[in-house]
Queue: 3 jobs
Job 1
Amino acid sequence: DAKVRLDRRAVEPRGAASTMPHFRVTYQVSAPDEKGARDIVDALCLEQTVELPESLVPPGTWINEHVVGKCESLRRCAKQPQFEGKDERDIRWEAVVRYADDTSGGELPQLLNVIFGNTSIKENVKVEDLELSSTLMGKFLGPRFGTKGLRELLGVPKGPMLMTALKPMGTSVAKLAEMAYAFAKGGIDVIKDDHGLANQRYAPYEERVRACAAAVRRANAETARKCVYAPCLNAPAHLVVQRARFAKAAGAGAVLMIPGITGLDTMRHLAEDPDFGLPIVCHPAILGAMLGGGSQHECRGFSHKVLLGVLPRLAGADSTIFPSFGGRFGFSEQECVDIAKGCTQSLGSMPPIVPTPGGGMTLEKIKKMTQVYTEDVMLLIGGSLIGHSPDLVANARHFLGIAGRTDTYGPLENERHPASSYPTSTAALTVVHHEPEHHESNEEIDKLQKRCVQMEKNVAMLTEMYLKEEKARKELEKKAAAGGHHHHGKDDHHADSGHGHHKPGTTLPPGVAAPATPVDGNYSKVFNRPKDGSWTWERIPQEMYKQDGGSFKGCSRFELLGKRGESTVFHVRYFEVEPGGWTTLEHHRHEHAVIGLRGKGEIQLGPHVYPVHVGDAAYTAPGDTHQLRNHGDEPFGFICVVAADRDRPVEVDPKEFLKSMSLKHALQHGMKESLEAQAKHRASMGGDAEPSACEWKPGMKKKKAEAAKAVESGSACEWVPGKKH
């Protein structure tokens, strides 16, 4: 039986297990006496590791000595909680349990599982503290910036840093961008999305991020401050990293993550990504369900210090938001102090992170908050700041003043307000400015300059698109107002508004149009091209093809159907390629269909090239390398229909593709010249293109390489199960 099998395993000498690296968890348990507490802890040691009774893994066996948790100490808590209705049998005990590092596998998800896994489902146990070995600490990189790095990034060498939120949900993109500009103009260091902003129709993610990042950038240009915008990454699992990369490409200076929803390890993954490199702000939504303590001193969940201080820091957050005492959430002053302690206490080589108290705080309570949290804090005020007065810029400056900041005006504004700035001491300059440790080669500098030029063009293109959309929107509103139409809600979009003076059953006069259909939501709808014949669609914004010009040239797109709440399993897009331009040479696992709509072009399908004229249809099968090009003298436009749920395209190097095709096939006229021109353009721009963030699933290049390696080695830890081919 199982007991016999386990008993027969080789037994190592006593004491050998204690020399292996361990981490320790301090638990608080509730029991009427020491025996009851001991029973809970003994059961916990087994439950959190082997999930078997001790009779099946008795002392002396290898598993018992090296895997099962060991209670190092158990004592009655010196300070017992007192609250109304307390059961006299509710006596609190503190137990320190040691676990071998190996039980965690060196991975954060399994570490959390060992710390509290199944025991979290039980009553009368709370995780009070956590102590990791230096070996296990070395598995995690932790915060990329920390308090010191954030101060340097934001240009705030002393005094509390300040944060506010763009809200409420339901606000338009234009209004949110206007708020972001005002807050940055007034000197708020971090302007974050409210955690409820995701990808809703009133403020779609990509549109909102572009607009708000540009607004903060504009304010910084006027003040010379270093304020940053932090969009919220509350997204489906396969889109979190892509939206983060989009945010960086669009000019965001940080991101807001909700690990209670998207996972602590997702935050760790992004923090450790060397290509991302932006500060991460941790939001506590949902984590409250995992907290113990509170007004009833509940013996369950995690302590405030561990859940909102230590774990976010371990997972790479640079700032952790939590409800401050005196707000609407009921945290005590001591619980908030404990969170701050988790942010700043020694944790291996990881830097301290910034405690960020908020949660219904008012401007009147700032003085008390600065006294409790000291200077290394980021104060978060949202609704109170918005409601203080209609002038958000003045509100922000008032916030700075009562927080004790002396930089009421930015450096470029100090010509008019010379007394309002930080003293320019040598120490302050040392904190903010750093000499580069190495010099790039002329070739690298040239590439960087070219990429900067391209990014500036992209920003200009985005700005132009945004202004066109705003102009079109205002013209439609003006027409609607002139015609006596009113705006429709979601429940009356089929109503015969605008013709209310006509009786039901009568025939409308010629030229009286039906009311406009909704743009967003799963409703029947029509989007018309303007009467001037231009290849645009009313109420549909033109978008960039991708975020970087390295793999394509002269492309733009309109997302016509599928991305605005429709229940279609496909997306309908219109792409346009300028004369001499091309789309990315790529392949992917999904298929798509292309129909020529304007001008003429050609499509590369594997080794062959085919013409595409108006009305021609082309199908790209899964896995086929493809590209569309325009060698004509007028724009080439086409409809592309693609699956809504699809994988991310994998870019193909045109130089390598040409080399491969030349070895196997005779090349059609012009193909060699086209691919060579693309290779030259791609090299000048510095590499791969950044994709759109809202629809593609995570890239597979690295995963495929890891999968192939894992198949060869027989390991199953890093790849998705599948057959060897």
Job 2
Amino acid sequence: MGGRGSWRGQAGEAAGRRTRSRRVQSRRIHEHLHVRARQTTCERNVKRMENDAVVEGRKQRLTGKRTIRSTVYDMCTQKPPHDYSAALYEKYRGVFETYLKQRVVPTLQEKHGESMLRELCRRWSNHQTMVRLLSRFFNYLDRYYVTRHGYRSLKDVGALCFRDLVYAAVARDARDAILAMVKKEREGEPIDRSLVKQALQIFVDIGVGDLDAYQSDFEVYLVTDTSMFYKTKASEWVVNDGLPEYLVKAEECLHREHERVGHYLHPSSEPRLLETVEAELLSRNETELLEKEQSGCAALLQDDKVQDLARLFRLFQRVPNGLLAITAIFRKHVEKEGVELLKEADQAASERTEGKKDVCGVVEQNLIKGIIALHDKYATYVKDCFSINGRYNLSDTLPPPTATPPGPHGPTSLFHKALKEAFETVCNKSVCGNTMAEMLAAYCDNILKKGGSEKLNDEEVEALLEKVVKLLAYVADKDLFAEFYRKRLARRLLFDKCMHEDHERSLLSKLKQQCGGQFTSKMEGMVTDLQLAREHDAGFADYLASKEKPLDIDMSATVLTSGFWPSYKFVELALPAEMAQGVETFKEFYAGFTKHRKLTWIYTLGVCHVNVCFDGKRTYELVLTGALQAALLMLFNDEDKLSYEEVRERLGLPEDELKRSLHSLSCAKYKILLKDGDRKKISSEDTFSVNTSFSDKFRRIKVPLPAMDGEKRKVVEEVDKDRRYAIDAAIVRTMKSRKMVPHQQLVLEVVQQLNQMFRPDFKVIKKRIEDLIAREYLERDKENPNVFHYLA
């Protein structure tokens, strides 16, 4: 019993296994048949697409879209050998290759020109539609099989098939057709821009993510055609047109090419396209254009053609080194006009007649005005015409040039440099025997003093001073200007000739900003001294009021700091009792609040007002320069007649100062004193008396002292002396920091340190080095005499 039961159990288990096996095999066969059925449906739909159902634009409905996607999924998810992923990938490529070879290429080869372009654009659009639809159907294949094996995506496969079969066959013809249409448009004929844009988009899309196809198959040939086209045009225009007309045409061409890029070319073509146009129209013919005799760059500057100059700058700043020739012409033209002004001033000064006074001074004033006007004119040109953001360049719509602008401030810096070099040449020449430094100082004096020839309001004065300081920047000998200006400032301050103290301070502030604080330190000290002098005047008035016995004369004294003011010659003078009383009283007052300063009286400065009655009836007020004339006249209060020797003994004056004073009172315009002998010269044999018959229509009369000979020479000598000190200090300063310096390097460093104030002469530097060696500040190297050592 037990054995039979066991056998039956084993047989039942075997039968169950066979039944389950048959069920699995049946299910697999069913699934395989199901996949084969879906595959058949998929192939049928793909075949319909091959037969142009979709691509030709007929809206036939594909049956079983969802079935196709499911079939692709099933075919790609089976285990080998039933995994059809590779076969589907190849089938996808085969569909495109078959269709393109049999339908598209033959059709395109039958057409030419614009009709071929239109057919190509239509076929490309249909091809993209086909790629898009099939990519959706085969999405699973694209997401997993393609990604896992690193193959190209289905979209790229479709594009590559079109590139290898269609594009390769018609690219040359399509390019020629596009270039022909571009040339027609350049000649002024209308074209179908949308067609060109669609055709060029094919060149871009064929690259599958890059522009290699567009650049190598189209852009290179476009640039070549552009170069040939504009080379021909330029050769015609340069012969037939002047520079202004040529520039207008060149700018129009650049704008049209810029617009052409916006209409249908790829944006990446714009830089090369514009560079080609610029090279053919501008670079190639630059020299010939700029040097045209009647209409070149110099003629534009001469005729003030600001619009044309701005266009010239706009165009040539796009060309590498295109502005160098223009800036050279600009500098040469400005320099030429400045030198002409100098020549005219020299000629006007040489033609002056004996009867005219101070003609050279008037000529110098007019010259400075002319140079300021010239600088204003061409500085405005640089600002408005030769600047990217200039007044006449704001309407420029072209993209910025690809060339790197020269200088830290772009191409405009070239013109600033040219303007600077031109005015450095002009402002370092002499006129009428006077340097520009001296003339600028005189011009400032004329603006700032009372009674000057310039009648200006406050705003005009400030603007003019600003322009003068700009001119000073071009002057090499700034220290010479400083000394001449300091002399004139002293006269304005001491003789109360300042028109407005605020203007004086304003100019000093501008000079300080331009040349540094050391340049204006003495001048600022002079202005400060005058402020303190007003306080002393008020204190001295209170001091006199507190005294029981008043002075016989009205007196005020100005205390000056000797280090700030120009050096003045001290003259011994025996003062009249009235004047001596005032001097002693002021000494007592000043000693009351300072005991460590010594007062040295400069009698040649200041102003004396003397009331004189010649005939006992009418009184005149004589305005005299300094105390010398006043002391001399007061001698005749007690004497009717004095000889030259008697005057000299009583006043104790040096002979030159005595003759100056006597000449101003007896030989000048106003004959206050009468003399014997020659009426134009002072002699030691002369005798002087009061002119009792003197009369004049004015009651207030100014009697100036004659100018001293050699005053200008003394200023130059003082400046030369200061320069020697400055060179010595620069040499010692350099040697102290370096200890050992070769001769050439030492000279260069000294020049660099001092170049801001003046241009030191190499010969003078060499002499100062030898002097310092003699004074044992330096010594030569024993082995190399061109090397110096510092001696501590």
Job 3
Amino acid sequence: SNPVDVITAMSGVKEQADAQGEKVRKMKEAIKADPASHTKEELAKEVDELKRLKAELANEAPADIPPEIKEKYDLVRSVGEECIADAELLNLITKKPDSFVLYDGFEPSGRMHIAQGVFKAMNVNKCTRAGGTFIFWVADWFALMNDKMGGDLEKIKVVGEYLVEVWKATGMDMEKVKFVWSSDDIISKAVAYWTQALDIGRKTTLARVKKCCQIMGRLENKLTAAQILYPLMQCTDIFFLKADVCQLGVDQRKVNMLAREYCDTAGIKNKPIILSHHMLYGLKKGQEKMSKSDPDSAIFMEDTEEDVARKINNAYCPTTAEEAQDKPKDGVEAIDAGLESMHLTQDDLKNPCLDYVDNIIFSVPDQTFEAGGTPYKSFAAVKTDFLAGKLGEAALKEGLINAINKLLQPVRDHFATNDKAKAVLAQVMAWKRENLVPPSGLKRLVATDGSKPVHVVFAPAATAELTLGQLLTVQAQLNAATDDQEVVLWCADWGSFALNRCGGDQKVVASCYTQLVEALKALSPKLMERVKVMLQSEELLKNPSSYWISVINIGRKYPLQKVLAADNTEEGSEYAGQVIASLMHVADCLALNPATICCDPSGEGHAKLCCDYYAEAEITELKVPTVLTLNAIDTMLKPPHMLEGPANADDNIFCQDASMDVSRKMKRAFCEPSNVTHCPPLVLCDAAVLQQGETLTISRKEENGGDKTYTAIAELRSDFESGALHPGDLKPAVTKALDAFMQRIRDHVKGNDAAKKAETDIKNYLKKAAKDKKKK
């Protein structure tokens, strides 16, 4: 962490970058002379390495460090057991010596242990004294979500104020400290917060997020779906607060690294710097860290002198290291990331008493520790004497008890003499004695008034290439509603964003749903008069807090594997966004409180996920919806056995197809004489002509059977199967009728500004996507 060492290392990176640039240049010249000299993959690999080195150089430390910058750097760096990366920290302080931002977060859910109190206060003071602003993300919304303090947000905020008072009494300099309450920002700035979270989810693989499970303290192979959400939300906090430095504990390292990796994917140049502080051991043997659930595992800021004495006297305090526990054999991956060590430095002794002396007592500036009649000015001297037997366990513990009580006494005095602090503490203690119970009932968004039974159709995930089959399937599902029902078409725009549909372009996603709705209006104006189109983002933003609490509660009930099973995604290819989208789907269902969910077979997995939740969560105030499954209308122009190989745009009819597209595609459509098992023209005629109330007229010479008009598919299919109707007569007739059907959509688009704009947005997106694909 020495600035001189950092500069030396960076000069080495510059040499590597120069050499790599020369290597890429020569490789390109060789390919120009002989295309077979190197493969595209080989060149791409070397170019990626050059980009990596250049990115590292972008954060290069300055050549000459002014003394005041070195002093600031040393002060901030002393806070962390690890810094990723030292050069970036030095560069940050050089460029923003008095305006860099650090952050940490805490949930105001109860007690504060001594590491969070004294250790944190001293670290914050170092950072602010060096010129930084320290932001505390007060996670009161998460405490609300966890039903702390009876699920009362105002009470939770009072607990937050109590913790702030503790820090004041501990000696935290509040001049450059800001407390940002998550409940205020998550609700008032819901679009910015949640779209950031979804963006991280759509760009991060599920396998990568699972590695962060340490922050939940759970085993990777026993994850709930909600545990995928927590790291994504913590990542979001970093970008939402515009933090330059993540100043959290080593136990949060993996999720902070996830934030840096997201920067690579999202093209964000300045990555958050990770400055991870030491994690104190629990006071009992084998405790890698303190636990709020075990009151004897740590000293808490409100502990009495007697509490301190009892806990320290009972604390584990070895003088020699015990044999390490068995480790996994070589080649065997440990599945339990949640039980990994919380410490980065080698410490075989793992003595919590020495740990307290080092990181609590000596965290205070100019501190002297007295034990066994000897005043110590450094931790190294204490440890040396203790291990040599010059300082006994009893004397070490006695000195530690006195030192801790000396640090805690100002806090005790503050709450005894300061009127505001006294009142806050009295209120919190009174609520604790009341044993507050959270309000009963289901937390959910309410999107319908319940005046009529609801028939819901969940529109397919946004697609820039909406097929005629998808459009007709939605039309049929909407038509399946009974006369007494309210019909809802739910468009999951944020869910589509989480699924990375349309490359994550939210404008194009919105245009896709506009295209779907306007096409339905063109085909079935009367039907659409009774359909209520609901856009997911608009609805959830009416009460974002209740909506996202319901999403997280659903995730808590469901094992991750159950949610993944509903998605039918190939194992290993999953992204975290898929899990979020599935949980949002269930939350959408709760918001709508439908009597019926109408879907095709591909939607049955998610429909079952919705219905199963009623039993999982023991919901009594809502009735389980009935699932009505209709077969999807397949407008694919080839039978399944001919679909192998790369997809072809002529294999299907799309809603944006012009007359010439329809004509060309229908000429090439599979239409084998007498084959009614796989006959796309018959399917298209049934769905787009006959079921729309139109007729199909076959025009042919008298010797070939003469003209004939069909009103029902059964007769048409029968004639084709018997050979009475030849493909050469069927295809032209269906082509004409189909094009007339689709002309209704084209005419509607011409006369509707919203539809016209949506079509333009989608076409521009498809052109760009094709161009980008060609480049690759």
